[in-house]
């Protein structure tokens, strides 16, 4: 799914399970032409999203771990309100 979004960058991070290598292999098999960034934790994702938001009009964060997505969302809200 992600390879079909036409994104210049796809950042992958562990959610419920750490499937980053599986995702990377699928993206490579589908000949994804963009950059694949490997992030380790929520803090990395938040920093990356904030950095990308300065350069790109849209940033999509998706994953298979609902708790992680909520944690990322809350951290982004805090970071944005602190600006």
Percent in helix:
40-55%
> What is the H/E string?
EHEHH
Total domain count: 1
Distance between the termini: 33 Å
Low-confidence stretches: none
- Multimeric status of the protein: single chain
Q: What sort of overall outline do the alpha carbons produce when their principal axes are compared?
A: globular
Number of helices: 3
Largest sheet, in brief, is: 2 strands, parallel
The proportion of strand residues reads 5-15%
Briefly note the structural class of the backbone. mainly alpha
Structure description:
The radius of gyration is 13 Å and the shape is globular. It is built from 3 helices and 2 strands; from the N terminus they run βαβαα. The protein has a two-stranded parallel ribbon with strand order 1-2. It has helices spanning 20-29, 42-55, 66-82; strands at residues 9-12, 35-38. α2 (42-55) packs across α3. β1, α1 (20-29) and β2 form a beta-alpha-beta unit. It has one domain (2-82).
Key terms for this structure?
two-stranded parallel ribbon, globular, 83 residues, mainly alpha, 3 helices
Q: Can you lay out the helices and strands and say which pair or pack?
A:
Elements: E1 9-12, H1 20-29, E2 35-38, H2 42-55, H3 66-82
Parallel strand pairs: 1-2
Helix pairs in contact: 2-3
Give a short summary of the structure.
This protein has helices spanning 20-29, 42-55, 66-82; strands spanning 9-12, 35-38. With 83 residues, it is mainly alpha-helical.
